[in-house]
Amino acid sequence: MPRHRITQADVAAMAGVSQATVSFVLNDSTPAGVRISEETRQRVLDAIRITGYSANPVAQRLAGGHNQILGVFTYEATFPRAGRDFYGPFLVGIEHAAEKLGIDILLFTSARVVDGRRRLTRDGWQRLGIADGCLLLGQHEDRGELQHLLDTNYPFVFIGKRGSDGGRLPYVGADYVTATARQVERLVTLGHERIGYVGPRGTDQPTLDRVDAYRATMKAHGLTVRFVELDDVAATAAEIVDQRLTAVVVAPENYPEELVDELERRDVRVPEDVSFLLLGQPHHGRPGGRRWSGFSIPREEMGARALVLLSRLVAADTGPTRSGRRATRGLTVPEDELHQLLECVDVDGETVAAPPARRRAAAPVRPAAPARPAPATAPGV
Amino acid sequence: MPRHRITQADVAAMAGVSQATVSFVLNDSTPAGVRISEETRQRVLDAIRITGYSANPVAQRLAGGHNQILGVFTYEATFPRAGRDFYGPFLVGIEHAAEKLGIDILLFTSARVVDGRRRLTRDGWQRLGIADGCLLLGQHEDRGELQHLLDTNYPFVFIGKRGSDGGRLPYVGADYVTATARQVERLVTLGHERIGYVGPRGTDQPTLDRVDAYRATMKAHGLTVRFVELDDVAATAAEIVDQRLTAVVVAPENYPEELVDELERRDVRVPEDVSFLLLGQPHHGRPGGRRWSGFSIPREEMGARALVLLSRLVAADTGPTRSGRRATRGLTVPEDELHQLLECVDVDGETVAAPPARRRAAAPVRPAAPARPAPATAPGV
DNA sequence: TCAACGCGATAATACGCATTATTACGCCGG
DNA sequence: CCGGCGTAATAATGCGTATTATCGCGTTGA
């Protein structure tokens, strides 16, 4: 066990060549006018094998190379609970892919938190450079930061679809549009007509996609769209009752559990009186929570795919060479890999049923339904 | 926006001083015979403020300094599911602490997997150097690796108590001994006498601690110890019945769910006929799983505490200076911080009750108990 | 005979920072 | 007038690698 790490110089000495030669052999590159004879190449390789040399990633990076580290930056300040629950599955996918690719993952947890979300300040930005590239998770707004990213040509991939603001930005997202449309179709097929959309009207991409799909599908069936925007849970529940909705599709970020509680407090049963379809997994799951119907986002796969994409982008990039010319290596990443939308998978829970027989809100007095209603048992189907 | 990152040289130019001076001011250190006047100090600080300079962590590290990155190495190959479930809470704590301390977390996911577990090969070892120090999660065996760690004086902290093999190794663990003893006491207080220990007889520290505590507590009450070692679930269940146990303390790593299923298949009810106390959270939780009684390990806090400890160790170390003398900086970490045992917290679930009235295994015919048994309802208490 | 050229490889440099060695200057005592 | 000392800082070096510029030498064509 040598007391100091084995360097290329050590290997070089053993092989009787120069450090540069070792570097060339390692990188398997002969940059314009450098030849290495097969014989010395072998000699160097032997020396590497014997010494057990392995590159120092730090030096590698400083010298402008790649170091097999990819960063993960989450905009939302995550903890203590909600965040981890949401990002966890992404990370599982990311780590899984990283393991396969022999890549280490750097979590940028040090970034300053401003107004409850992490910022890519000049400080944070500088730190990104430690890694070959970076995965960006979560919604964010700052245009300037994005521009900076693009300017410097630093490799990165968003997890979550990017809309109008940056068609150029590489991302791996979930296909909310198709998935949402499928949910509405499902309700229509069951016979629902008064189908509402419950959720905030933000400008984030998931919301836009969900609303668009809802609107389009309803229109396709000649049904009236009915939006219920959340102020507080009680008001929302009241609105659902008032509008005599028999089904709602619900954005998952707004405490659907509480909403259903509130409805049941008003003697409205789910799903007998009102069906609930969740457009994504609930963000704030309760331990004994109900089994929602709707769809789920393939978070693990998104994470994995994003990492793979990023590693390809990195490979296609020469890295921050001092000469400044970050020419692509010929390996260009095809356009259709740059923007990936993954299918969501439908979830059959226990919150969907055919609409009640009578169109008007049913009388509060009705026989108690079994805990897990078999659709056949529901009256009038 | 300058196209290249701002370096100390840039700052130096602006302040009209040398790069070295900037470095000194930044590190707030005047190494033996170097004086910086208050006036130039301010000038440099101003320049730093104006330029928005922030150190390049890679260069920092290469030059032998610290870079505010701490590594996390997990021995167990984790995915797809079980691992994340187990390590997740630790990571939550780790990240939380890291955020507070302004530290980034590097997950060493690239390490080679040999025989189902990650190894700190020469390769992996070299990579550790990227970070200032490293957290080690999970059981492992290789003595050589440990020795190497100690030899090189690389700062690290284990999560999970280290026993005989390395009293010198810094760790943050859970107090299995006290917690296990408490569980046995709990059963004794309820009137149990035939209390078994179900679990493997490994040599890992958690097992040793649990077994010791079980043995000691039983002895203190003059009760006979009864070990049930798992081969397969059916055999274990049979053994529990044969030995007419009224309660068992169970190591959580061995599918207690399945065991209870098997018992109920034999008309043995939990907890009416047999109480189950879990010595830690179940490793393989089922979604709709039962609410176990027992104790839970404060994983988040362990993660957080370990990270804080590690950062202190790093601070107390001058880092890998080329001069080779890694003298402590005067800041020594006190012994009692080097080895921390955290209290486990008792969990009141639904798997414990007083022993059945009759000593012999009760007749299979007995009234069905309510789903969540109130101890008062249990017959014969 | 000599420039040109291909081959094989090395020397030199830069990356950005920490650290060690060295310098410049003014002042004091002898 | 000079050596010595304290102050304030700078020059120089090294970390380990990637890359660029350069070199020595034998062969070849003119």
From TrEMBL, chains A, B:
Region annotation (Disordered) ranges: 355-381
Keyword Acyltransferase part of the UniProt annotation: no
SUPFAM superfamilies: lambda repressor-like DNA-binding domains (SSF47413), Periplasmic binding protein-like I (SSF53822)
Gene3D superfamilies: 3.40.50.2300, lambda repressor-like DNA-binding domains (1.10.260.40)
Molecular-function annotations in GO: DNA-binding transcription factor activity; transcription cis-regulatory region binding
HTH lacI-type domain mapped to chain residues: 6-64
Keyword flag Signal: no
Keywords: DNA-binding, Repressor, Transcription, Transcription regulation
Protein's UniProt name: LacI family DNA-binding transcriptional regulator
UniProt source species: Cellulosimicrobium composti
